[in-house]
Task: inverse folding
């Protein structure tokens, strides 16, 4: 028997269908070992060793990592060892990339096989590809393993050394990351551009025209220049909203535009020039990982994690080739299959004389795979795959995209003619005006018959559409049927979407296509970014974190520095550099401070208050208003007065006027009175986890928090009295002492409702009011009963969102222990950032669930 080990059960099922009875295909279910996050996660025999190292990495001993088998993988490892005892050969069939190579190495280390070991690699799961991989195995590539292990160790040291700085200076629970921190910086920098943006108003003049004689088809023309001075359009302004080349470009105001319109009412218009140009558009290359994520985001509105989850399922079930690749190359068999489909479905006139090839333009390109394409020597029809995976499912829609893009890449260019027309007229004031009209006709659609690429720029989407003009020649007289001045306001630079962030990360050489989805999910999970529609919006926490890192750890968040790390890892993967010396230079320094020195020397220089403050402006009286992030979330401060800042207000929309409105808004909190024993003020407040009462004020700099207690369900912030509040604050209430063992019995409210407690023994109460009414006899009677879980009636959903188009399961929003979440009955995903129960859509719910499934996988 020959044992084949892959990463996932789905992949194992597909491959086992291609191999005979001599093979057993089993899954490792992903990674089998990792560095423990804390000592408690290591076996007791290794906990002292974890503490001796730097977060599980022995930096004094060539950065040796402490790897342990994950607790949830022990059962599977036992099964693999049992199968290995009966095997005569072991085939490691993990993915053909650095991560897959590392998983194969970990399996070797854990299983310690005594039989011959083969490394089989393939980029598609088809019968021919699997058989070819069996027939042509190779050895484990230690260079790829070293590069992946160096990346893992670097990321552990970077995150674990820097994150405590953020905990002390910004907020508990934050994390820094070699790639996630620069990605957050990109988004924050764009938000700063929006904050500093100054809107400018300008006017344009549009005319609806036709020939005076002959073809009277109407067409649109726009004022281009006046007296040879170009008229400003939206593209004439820079990112800050200022006019570029102001000495050469004129921005029309309303008065000037209106005067020109009036002066042109009786003017004679005629064509001054017609410039035809041949129009040619080449098809785009087949998908690689990043372009698939971008296009699925534009066309299907998929988040990166959702795209990669669907692609993973398509790959594991044998429908597409490997989906983590920088390559745009197609194998000979794929070229033949695509060309045959072009001939069959579109006709021989759409087929180029020879196959098209595309050069990769990816910075730091790696992983010598094919492009992402339908698997096999013959592409499965769209209808067949849709029937197999479910019509309308994520997999069906993504396969449709991949199939069409692949086929279109092997079709002829689209051809046509573009027309640039200039129209002259003299206004009553004597000003010489030039209008412009443009048209396009497509004489041969070529690849556009199969596929049109999407764009983040709405104007670019018009590029592949026909815009016919009537026959026009120089000297033709024209009638202006309508002249209209339109006002416009410049817009700030658009926020990044997942698609445009992927483009920017790739341009800078930061991260790898296979990591983009996890990067975007991580910065949302950590509270640095939230989604507003498809836009990625940074939180105040992101601003504070980026400010801290830029000022005190500038190299570690520098884009070029991060990209150079990727270059170095590529050199290690090629065998041109060694991992240990590289890690030593990064951690200990080499002519410049290393990571450990930067962290230890910079900590006391960081002013936490300054880092966490963003000046909004000054109110009418000249008092400064600042936004800050604190222990309990973002807030505004003006002098001694502060107010919570709603999480869904982006900083670029937080004007001084809006800040004053929030600061002066009536608070939902109530001052109930004074505690006669302590003299402290008693408050009733509404909090994140519900209404509560509080004794005393929060004092900045003090670690001890004021005492609080949740209101009973029968109480409200508006009606609770100081007497009721003081009674609630008495919890836990001492009911009495058990006469048998002299242990005290307390009654109190908890996360799961009211209960009594004696030592480690607890029993639930039926009603919150029993906390104060329960007698000693009743408490002893409860404790005498056997402990049992309380059956609770299921809460009704907070909102129903309809059916998930992929599974047909109902989607609902429910209230959970940690807040609202969406569920399809199998997978749960918490609402994030600015998501609210009222505003969440079906599409957003599907996205959150897809990301959650990807993480679980």
Result:
């Amino acid at each position: 028997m020959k044992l084949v080990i892959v990463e996932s059960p789905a992949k194992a099922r597909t491959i086992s269908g291609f191999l005979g009875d001599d093979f057993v295909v089993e899954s490792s279910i992903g990674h089998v070992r990792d560095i423990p996050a804390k000592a408690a996660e290591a076996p007791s025999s290794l906990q002292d060793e974890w503490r001796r190292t730097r977060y599980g990495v022995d930096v004094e001993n060539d950065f040796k990592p402490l790897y342990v088998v994950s607790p949830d993988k022990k059962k599977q490892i036992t099964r693999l060892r049992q199968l290995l005892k009966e095997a005569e050969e072991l085939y490691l069939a993990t993915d053909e990339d650095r991560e897959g190579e590392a998983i194969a190495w970990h399996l070797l280390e854990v299983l310690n096989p005594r039989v011959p070991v083969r490394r089989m690699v393939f980029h598609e799961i088809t019968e021919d590809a699997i058989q070819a991989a069996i027939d042509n195995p190779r050895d484990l590539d230690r260079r790829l393993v070293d590069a992946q292990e160096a990346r893992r160790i670097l990321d552990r040291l970077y995150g674990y050394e820097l994150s405590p700085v953020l905990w002390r200076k910004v907020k508990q629970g934050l994390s820094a990351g070699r790639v996630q921190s620069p990605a957050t910086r990109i988004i924050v920098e764009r938000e700063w551009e929006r904050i500093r943006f100054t809107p400018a108003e300008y006017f344009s003049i549009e005319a609806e025209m036709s020939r005076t004689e002959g073809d009277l088809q109407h067409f649109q023309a726009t004022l281009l220049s006046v007296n040879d001075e170009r008229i400003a359009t939206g593209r004439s302004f820079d990112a800050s909203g200022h006019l570029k080349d102001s000495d050469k470009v004129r921005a029309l105001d309303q008065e000037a535009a209106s005067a020109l319109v009036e002066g042109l009412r009786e003017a004679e218009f005629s064509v001054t020039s017609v410039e035809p140009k041949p129009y040619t558009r080449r098809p785009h290359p087949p998908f690689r990982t990043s372009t698939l994520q971008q296009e699925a985001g534009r066309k299907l509105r998929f988040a990166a994690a959702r795209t990669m989850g669907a692609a993973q399922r398509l790959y594991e079930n044998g429908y597409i080739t490997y989906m983590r690749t920088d390559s745009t190359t197609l194998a000979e068999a794929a070229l033949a299959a695509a060309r045959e489909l072009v001939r069959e479905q579109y006709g021989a006139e759409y087929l180029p004389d020879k196959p098209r090839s595309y050069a990769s333009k990816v910075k730091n390109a790696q992983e010598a795979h094919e492009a992402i394409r339908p698997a096999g020597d013959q592409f499965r029809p769209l209808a067949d795959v849709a029937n197999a995976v479910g019509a309308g499912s994520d997999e069906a829609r993504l396969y449709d995209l991949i199939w069409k893009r692949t086929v279109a890449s092997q079709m002829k260019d689209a051809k046509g003619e573009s027309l640039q027309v200039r129209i002259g007229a003299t206004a009553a004031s004597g000003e010489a005006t030039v209008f412009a009209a443009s048209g396009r006709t497509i004489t041969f659609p070529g690849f556009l018959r199969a596929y049109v690429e999407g764009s983040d720029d709405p104007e670019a989407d018009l590029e592949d559409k026909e815009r016919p003009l009537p026959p026009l020649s120089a000297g033709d007289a024209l009638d202006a049927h309508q002249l209209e001045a339109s006002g416009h306001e410049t817009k700030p630079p658009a926020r990044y979407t997942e698609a445009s962030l992927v483009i920017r990360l790739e341009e800078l050489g930061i991260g790898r296509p296979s990591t983009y989805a996890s990067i975007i999910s991580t910065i949302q999970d950590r509270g640095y970014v939230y989604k507003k529609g498809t836009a990625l919006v940074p939180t105040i926490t992101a601003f504070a974190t980026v400010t801290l890192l830029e000022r005190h750890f500038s190299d570690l968040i520098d884009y070029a520095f991060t990209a150079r790390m990727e270059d170095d890892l590529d050199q290690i993967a090629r065998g041109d550099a060694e991992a240990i010396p590289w890690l030593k230079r990064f951690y200990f320094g080499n002519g410049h401070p290393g990571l450990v020195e930067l962290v230890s020397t910079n900590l006391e220089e960081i002013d936490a208050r300054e880092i966490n403050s963003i000046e909004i402006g000054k109110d009418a009286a000249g008092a400064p208003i600042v936004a800050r992030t604190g222990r309990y979330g973002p807030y505004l401060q003006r002098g001694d007065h502060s107010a919570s800042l709603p999480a869904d207000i982006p900083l670029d929309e937080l004007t001084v006027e809006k800040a004053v409105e929030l600061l002066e808004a009536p608070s939902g909190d109530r001052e109930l009175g004074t505690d006669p024993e302590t003299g402290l003020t008693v408050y009733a407040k509404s909090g994140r986890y519900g209404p509560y009462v509080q004794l005393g004020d929060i004092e900045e700099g003090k670690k001890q928090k004021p005492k609080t207690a949740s209101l009973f369900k029968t109480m409200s912030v508006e009606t609770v009295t100081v007497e009721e509040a003081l009674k609630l604050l008495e919890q836990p209430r001492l009911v009495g002492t058990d006469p048998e063992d002299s242990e005290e019995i307390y009654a109190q409210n908890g996360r799961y409702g009211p209960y009594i407690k004696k030592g480690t023994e607890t029993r639930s109460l039926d009603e919150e009011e029993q906390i104060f009414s329960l007698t000693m006899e009743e408490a002893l009677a409860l404790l005498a009963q056997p402990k049992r879980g309380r059956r609770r009636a299921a809460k009704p959903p907070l909102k129903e969102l309809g059916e998930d188009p992929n599974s047909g399961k109902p989607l609902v929003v429910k209230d959970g222990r940690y807040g609202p979440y969406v569920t399809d009955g199998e997978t749960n995903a918490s609402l994030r950032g600015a998501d609210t129960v009222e505003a969440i859509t079906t599409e957003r719910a599907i996205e959150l669930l897809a990301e959650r499934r990807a993480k679980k996988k």
